[in-house]
Structure formats: structure tokens, C-alpha cells
């Protein structure tokens, strides 16, 4: 469930875009007005505002926002204002680049979006970067990470609820064998994780738990520090309980010495309209403090205000 | 270019479906009428006929065709009547099954369809089989074949003409190194073949030829018989000159001791509305005999008539 609050009577896109134009003009930028408008419009409304803005002023709203804003506030407003599929394409592209490389961001997009949404991200990637998402991901990764990541981003998983229990049992066994052998990048293990529907995968992991008396992610927790293994665990978490994965990402971002604003921004901007309600519940449960309180404690200024508006706590 | 001939004045779908119903009734089936109608309608017209038939008689036209027809004629009429994406999904599914398994058929679909069409095949696969194309392909293949085939079927290649010449040069070098090392299933080689746009891949293979004085497929021709290597060559051919690949498939199907009707049917049914004109030209050039003559020599009856109608030679 979404956390943004859209007013009952939304002004027409022309009016919103005129107000935004005003917010940019004159003595200093009116950040409060920008938040008041953009943080309270859904994706299709924001799209119409961008169109109206470009029709009225011949300029891209995003470019003007970029000119007027700065730092973390700029980043969250820009990410938020982008169409969700364009936003994911943008984040994924950024995550393939040298200085901002992040297998985790790419995996998160591949595993937590619906099959149809993931495909639309791939279309948006073509349109914007004139190449395919998978070619960039494959080019910029290697070894075990590539082996797992490329099939994740190219998957078009079946989304029905149908489950084949025989298959769940046999594939749970395969997973267990591979994990016992420490063959964490084995092709059968990767095949199962990257091609099966989420319903089927859930059934398989339940079987794993039933047959072997332990959750798979417990078996994947080994003593030595292994980046790929941590990545594999995160992948399984994203595929089976995305809200727990996002809770953990927020927890680590906030508890870090010096908040990880990129992670905080990414989770809020991508989830505010999707699953943020559940993520907030998980956060409260796990940290004994509501997310909005944690955000107030850790951030400041317009950035803080924007975050709070997006998670539905304007007045925290 | 397509080879089917659609009359200037096509009857309405209701009329066509009524005629087909008549062709099924009475003393024996009227095969000539079935050919006269179905072989001369394009995909969207055939779709409308199926809809009209089901609305008028409460039955699926395909099921009735199946009841009335038999053998090779049945197969080509059924395949032809299917919507192209459903047809590819059907052929791919068949190709994952034990007795009809064929990596070549799956590869052919993955490599010769446009990115958008391939995605529609994956959607049709979900709808019909309640699972994903890639999960069946991955499940039913192994080793090097799987390594190459799964990324081929999941690809969503960029389709623009843009070419990066620096990249073409460097990746031609990578391909050459891997081939020199006989690392035919190397992950870099597979990455290049399965993720790059066809335009980029063509540039890379041209660079290969320029830098190393030989076409890549010449370098892949080794003395010993190696199924995977033949498959790799066919993949490259499909990606770079599909009409030559289809010509060769037809040539082998026809020249075989006992025609390979499945291959002949598949190529004609899938290409008649797409690229058959070019394939016929290639066939004539390479075999010094026009395709229609070769078909007349090798096939008989209604099957022959249907093939000829689809390649635009009703009266050969």
C-alpha cells in the first residue's frame, strides 16, 4: 500500500505546473511549494504535470528542478518526479557505472518489481540509453555476480498462483545439495532462483524448511565474510519478502554512522507509491521506533520534509 | 517480404467462418476450400475468423480443424492458423518436450524474431502454459546448450542502428581469443552474442573478419563433429543472416532421404508472412532450382497445395 496522500481535489496539471514555475522564480526557490505539489501527486498526475510544464514553458520540468535544487533534496525530488519505469532504468544505469556501481540496486529492481514492470523498465532503458539493460549489466559485472544478476534482470517470471508441489520438493532438494556442497553459484541453484515464479519459489523454500529443518537463508549464513553469499541472501529475501528486505535496507541506512542518504532516498522514492505502508510496519516492529521518528532524528531541512511527506507523515 | 496473397476484396470474417464450417460438413472435408480461405488471409484476418467462428458455433476453429484434418496437412493448417506469437510459444513448448525436444527450434525463435515479438511470445507462453518460457527452457536443457540458450530466449535486445565501433573492435578481439582457446561456451563470448543489438553484433563480426581475415563461422568449423559447435554456428547465422539460415534449413529438410516435413512446415508457416520472399531467392540461388519446384517434387496432396499457396505459388 502507498503512503503518499493525494488531496481529494487535485488542481489541473496546468495549474500545478504554473505553481511550480512560480516556485522557481523570484527571490530563492520555494521548496515548500514544490513539496506541497509533487509529493502529493501520483505517478500519472506527475506525468501530466511534466507534460503541461513542457507545453507551457518549452522546458523539461526535471531540468528546471535540477537547476533550482541541490544535494539530497534535489536527488529525492528528481527521482520521485520521474515516471517509475524511467526511474528504475535511471537507477539501474547509474548502478552499472564505475563510481556508483551497485549490484544490490540492480538486483533489488529485478527482484521486487512485477514481471510486467520489470519489462517496462527494460523498455525505458532502451528508450533512454539506446542499449539494453542486460548488456550493460553483463558488461559491467563478472564472475558469480554476473551469473546470478543477468538472468535476474532478464527474467519474465510467470505471475500466477499455481504451484507444483512435486517440483517444489525436488527443487528444494537440489538447493539443499548445492548449499551443502557450498556450490553457491551452481547453475541449477541459479536456474531455480531466476526462472521460477515467486509462488513456486515460495513453495520450494517452504519445502526446504520442512525437509531440512532450517530456512535457506540460515543455511547461507556462513562464518567467513563473503560478498557473493550476502548478495545471494539478499536476492532470496527480495524475491520472498521484499518488505523485510526494504526494512533492513532502511535500518542499515539510518543506523549507519552518517546516514546512507542514497539508500534512504531510493527506498522511499521507489516504494512510497507501492509498498511503503507494509515497510513502515516492518520497520516499527523491528526497531521499536516508527520510521518517521527515525527519519526526523537522522535528516534535516527540505530533504527531511520531502521524506516525511512521501511516507505520509507531513507533520511528524 | 511476405509471400501469401490476400485477395483485394476479402469476405467478412463471419462469411469466412461460415464457409469453413461448410467445408467441415457433409461428405468428406473440403480441403480446397480450407486452403482457399485460410492460406489467403493475414494474421489479423485469421484472428477475426477464429473469433467469428467461436461466436457463431461456440467452438474453437482450431479444435474443429484438428478433428477434420490429419497428418502433415493438419499440422501446417493448425500452425498457420495460430496467431504468430501463440504459434511460436507452441513451437517452443513442443521443443522443450522429451520426444520433440529441439534446441534449434528454440534458438531459431529467440534469434530471428524482433525483440518486441520475442517478448510477445513470452507473454503468450505465460497465458497458455501458466509458466515462463525460460523456466521450461532452463529446466529441459543443460551444460553448454543451456548456457547459451537461456540468455537467448530472455534477451530484449536494443533494436536501433547505433553502433559503437570501439566496442566492436574490442569485442571482436575477445571473440577471437576465446575461439583460439576453443572456449566456445566462455561467458564473455556468450555475453556478447546474447546481449548486444543485432546492429552492434554485425559490426563486431565485420571487425572480426577485418582483423583476423576470416569470417567467424569459418573459424568455428572444426574437423571433429561437435553438436554444440554446430549449434553455435547456427545461432550466429540466425542473428546475422536469418534468410540464409532458413534457406539451409529448407535445403536440408528437402534433400533429406524422406523429407523432414516438420522443418519444412515450420519454416513455411512461420516465415510466409514475414521474410519468405527473401528466403525463396536465397533458395533458388543456392540450389539452382526454385523452392516451389523442389516442394512439388518432394510433397503431395493437400499438404503440397497448402505449402505452395503459402509461398505464393498456387499454380506451380
UniProtKB/TrEMBL annotation, chains A, B:
<feature type="binding site">
    <location>
        <position position="68"/>
    </location>
    <ligand>
        <name>Ca(2+) 1</name>
    </ligand>
</feature>
<dbReference type="GO" id="GO:0005737">
    <property type="term" value="C:cytoplasm"/>
</dbReference>
<dbReference type="Pfam" id="PF00191">
    <property type="entry name" value="Annexin"/>
</dbReference>
<feature type="binding site">
    <location>
        <position position="299"/>
    </location>
    <ligand>
        <name>Ca(2+) 1</name>
    </ligand>
</feature>
<dbReference type="InterPro" id="IPR001464">
    <property type="entry name" value="Annexin"/>
</dbReference>
<feature type="binding site">
    <location>
        <position position="28"/>
    </location>
    <ligand>
        <name>Ca(2+) 1</name>
    </ligand>
</feature>
<keyword id="KW-0041">Annexin</keyword>
<feature type="binding site">
    <location>
        <position position="26"/>
    </location>
    <ligand>
        <name>Ca(2+) 1</name>
    </ligand>
</feature>
<feature type="binding site">
    <location>
        <position position="298"/>
    </location>
    <ligand>
        <name>Ca(2+) 3</name>
    </ligand>
</feature>
<dbReference type="GO" id="GO:0005509">
    <property type="term" value="F:calcium ion binding"/>
</dbReference>
<dbReference type="GO" id="GO:0005886">
    <property type="term" value="C:plasma membrane"/>
</dbReference>
<dbReference type="GO" id="GO:0009408">
    <property type="term" value="P:response to heat"/>
</dbReference>
<dbReference type="GO" id="GO:0005544">
    <property type="term" value="F:calcium-dependent phospholipid binding"/>
</dbReference>
<protein>
    <recommendedName>
        <fullName>Annexin</fullName>
    </recommendedName>
</protein>
<dbReference type="GO" id="GO:0009414">
    <property type="term" value="P:response to water deprivation"/>
</dbReference>
<keyword id="KW-0479">Metal-binding</keyword>
<dbReference type="GO" id="GO:0009651">
    <property type="term" value="P:response to salt stress"/>
</dbReference>
<dbReference type="InterPro" id="IPR009118">
    <property type="entry name" value="AnnexinD_plant"/>
</dbReference>
<feature type="binding site">
    <location>
        <position position="296"/>
    </location>
    <ligand>
        <name>Ca(2+) 1</name>
    </ligand>
</feature>
<feature type="binding site">
    <location>
        <position position="256"/>
    </location>
    <ligand>
        <name>Ca(2+) 1</name>
    </ligand>
</feature>
<dbReference type="GO" id="GO:0001786">
    <property type="term" value="F:phosphatidylserine binding"/>
</dbReference>
<feature type="binding site">
    <location>
        <position position="254"/>
    </location>
    <ligand>
        <name>Ca(2+) 1</name>
    </ligand>
</feature>
<dbReference type="InterPro" id="IPR018502">
    <property type="entry name" value="Annexin_repeat"/>
</dbReference>
<feature type="binding site">
    <location>
        <position position="258"/>
    </location>
    <ligand>
        <name>Ca(2+) 1</name>
    </ligand>
</feature>
<dbReference type="GO" id="GO:0009409">
    <property type="term" value="P:response to cold"/>
</dbReference>
<keyword id="KW-0106">Calcium</keyword>
<dbReference type="InterPro" id="IPR037104">
    <property type="entry name" value="Annexin_sf"/>
</dbReference>
<keyword id="KW-0677">Repeat</keyword>
<feature type="binding site">
    <location>
        <position position="24"/>
    </location>
    <ligand>
        <name>Ca(2+) 1</name>
    </ligand>
</feature>
<keyword id="KW-0111">Calcium/phospholipid-binding</keyword>
<feature type="binding site">
    <location>
        <position position="304"/>
    </location>
    <ligand>
        <name>Ca(2+) 1</name>
    </ligand>
</feature>
